[in-house]
Every structure is written in structure tokens, then in C-alpha cells.
């Protein structure tokens, strides 16, 4: 047995490790083995000026007659390719889940188009989609606790998905495929007979992932797939998702609040604010200047443990404005620290155009090319001395 030992310098700090004095705490972390990334392929998904407005009663509580409009998505345009991981980031309420729901067919678009392999599915609800279209776009939900049927065994739930996607000629083939899917998500085959309540959160999310990939999906939308899980299993579940995505060349749309995970796993990043795409680019482009002023503020809020890293501290004043009553002009103008640098009241009057910087990097802002060129990095890795 290892005894508890006092850590010098703090009389209330003890540790049960006999080697804690020998460990080099400054040594760089070793990265786990990363699977080779497949080449990014052709365009699988194209969103073209997608709009989603919800009508709500102006005074829902008291049954008021007038209706108000929630502008959850304003004119989203982007493409996603085969084998690509596109991360979607932005504050709560900016419309991330809304576009995922429209893509899945759980809601239909108010305006605009969604092309899946060239075919427009934006206005087609899930019940009217072909089996192949339904199988092609799958989702891993935030909370594995309420997406599994509590009265069905794990094996049965996966077989049910295979039946819906018409995979396998008979029950025997489907059972075999179900066992292979358990292997794929690294769950023991014995789990097929377990009920969801006999699984931990991380294990349930693995079942959710097995179901999403059961029908050879072209696109998997993962909406905050690990945020409901314990920190200790978040990395394992994220890595699993990435590994399967790479193997199957799936297009992964990864919705997340966590910019450190996003930086680690995504090829491209889309930043959303109040229903708008405000920045879109390769991960390296989005994480280094020039930034959209909103991205700059998001990056300054990423916690970094390394003391050699210097970070600008940019405080975002106030909350996101309501999607029912968005400000005129630029959606970010009520919180932007750069607004005063734009001549006149342009930011308050006009929605900025999407400006293309180098190599497809896009930013929706009125700042000039020179102002963008002079932007300083938010995060800087200092030298050992500095
Ligand atoms: N069915 C609905 N009816 C009316 N308004 C809705 C509906 N669903 C979402 N909204 C509104 O649309 C906006 C965008 O919501 P959405 O769920 O897409 O945000 P989100 O970016 O996923 O946020 P979070 O990070 O908190 O999950 C919000 O203002 C929300 O209140
Ligand atoms: S357009 Fe104006 S308010 Fe909007 S992000 Fe750019 S500088 Fe800020
Ligand atoms: Mg959401």
C-alpha cells in the first residue's frame, strides 16, 4: 500500500503517490496516437441562404392574439465535404441546433435550400424523406440519457435502427451487424442484452454513436455530444467519434461550446452569432488573426493552463440580444469593441457583407482590409524567459 504523504509548501495538501517529487511537471504532454486523416472529398452538403423563422404567440402565457417571429437562422450558406469535420461554435441561442433540426428534417426551412449530394431536401420533412435520405443524415444527441428507449435492450435498439434503414436481408444478418457495431464503438458484445439503465453515461453515448452510424450515414451531426458526460470519458468518446468518422469517410458536423476540443479535431470552423454565420474558415485561419470581432472575444475566453501562453482578455459586455428582436445592422454591434473604428454609423445601419480573405476564409464585418491586417493575435506562446 502507498501511504499518504504531505506535499511540501502546503500543510493541507497530501497525495498518495510515492513518486510525486520525481515527476517533471514542465514536460510537454505526449499526444495519443492519431489516426491518419483521409483526404477531404467532394461536396456532400450545401446550405444555400437557409432561413428558419419560428412563429410564436407574442404573449404565449396569456394567449395574446399577435404573433412574433423568432429569427433562429438568418441566411446560412456553407458547404461540407466528404471526410471533413466542420465545427460549429457560438453562444447559447445562436441557432446551432435549429439548423441541425432543419437538416435532419425535424423542421422545414422557411427559405433557402439544403442540398444533400445535389438534391434539395431543405423543405422535405422527415416523414416525407426516402429511407436513404433519412439514413444519410444522422444525429448524435447531447443527452444520451433521454435518447435511448428505456424498455428495450441495447441490441434491440440497434437492430431496430437497422430495420428502419433496411439493412440486412434477415434477422440473422442484422444481429451480426449489430454485434459488429458494438465492436466498432468498443463495447463488449454482452452489452447487447443489457437495458439502458444498466449503462453509464459514456456507454450510453457509445450506443447512440453505434445507432447513428448503423445506416452508413453520409452526414452525422453531433450536437454537443460529450457535454453531458463526465470529463474523464469526454476525451474517449470524442476520440471514438473521430476514429469512426475517419474510417467511414463521414462528414461530421460537430456542434460545440468547447473551443479547445474544436481546435483539436476540426478541419474547418464555422462561427455563428444570432442566427448568422460570422466567420468560416480552416481551423488555423479561424484560430489566428484576422478574426471576426466576435471570434476574437470567444478565443480570449478559452481557458489555457500553460503559463507560457499569453492571452488577451476581452470581456463581452451583456447577453446575446433576443432572436425575436435582433438589432439593426450588424448582429454583433451591441457588444463589439471594434465598432468605433468603422466610420459613421455603418455598423448600426447595414448588415455587413461576407468578405473573403485569403484562401476561402470568410468574415462578415465592415472593418477594412487594413484593419484586419493589423489585428493582433489573442493567444501568444511566449518564450521560456518571457
Ligand atoms: N420551436 C421553437 N419555437 C420558437 N423558438 C425557437 C424554437 N426552437 C428554438 N427557438 C429559438 O431559436 C433560437 C435558436 O435556438 P437554438 O436551439 O438553435 O440555439 P443553440 O445555438 O442550439 O443554443 P444552445 O447552445 O443553447 O443549444 C433561440 O432564440 C430559441 O429560443
Ligand atoms: S461590422 Fe461593425 S459591429 Fe459588426 S463586427 Fe464588424 S466592426 Fe463590429
Ligand atoms: Mg443547441
Itemize the secondary structure elements and their pairings.
Elements: E1 5-6, E2 14-15, E3 43-57, E4 67-81, E5 85-89, H1 96-104, E6 111-116, E7 119-120, H2 131-136, E8 137-140, H3 154-164, H4 171-184, H5 201-212, E9 219-223, H6 231-248, E10 251-255, H7 259-265, E11 268-273, E12 276-282, H8 283-286, H9 293-300, E13 309-311, H10 346-349, E14 354-356, E15 362-364, H11 369-373, E16 379-381
Parallel strand pairs: 5-10, 5-11, 8-9, 9-10
Antiparallel strand pairs: 1-2, 3-4, 3-6, 6-7, 11-12, 12-15, 13-16, 14-15
Helix pairs in contact: 3-4, 5-6
Number of helical stretches of at least 4 residues: 11
Number of strands: 16
Q: Which term fits the overall shape?
A: globular
CATH fold naming of the largest domain: Rossmann fold
Helices and strands: which structural class?
Answer: alpha/beta
In oligomeric terms, what are we looking at?
Answer: single chain
The low-pLDDT segments are none
Rg estimate, integer Å: 24 Å
Biggest sheet architecture: 8 strands, mixed
Helix-strand pattern: EEEEEHEEHEHHHEHEHEEHHEHEEHE
Q: What is the CATH architecture term of the largest domain?
A: 3-Layer(aba) Sandwich
Bound small molecules, deduplicated: adenosine-5'-triphosphate, iron/sulfur cluster, magnesium ion
What is the H level of CATH, i.e. the homologous superfamily of the largest domain? P-loop containing nucleotide triphosphate hydrolases
* Strand percent estimate: 15-25%
Strand order, largest beta sheet: 8-9-10-5-11-12-15-14
CATH class of the largest domain: Alpha Beta
Task: Provide the helix percentage.
Answer: 25-40%
* Span between termini: 43 Å
Mean pLDDT: 90
How many structural domains are formed by the residues?
A: 2
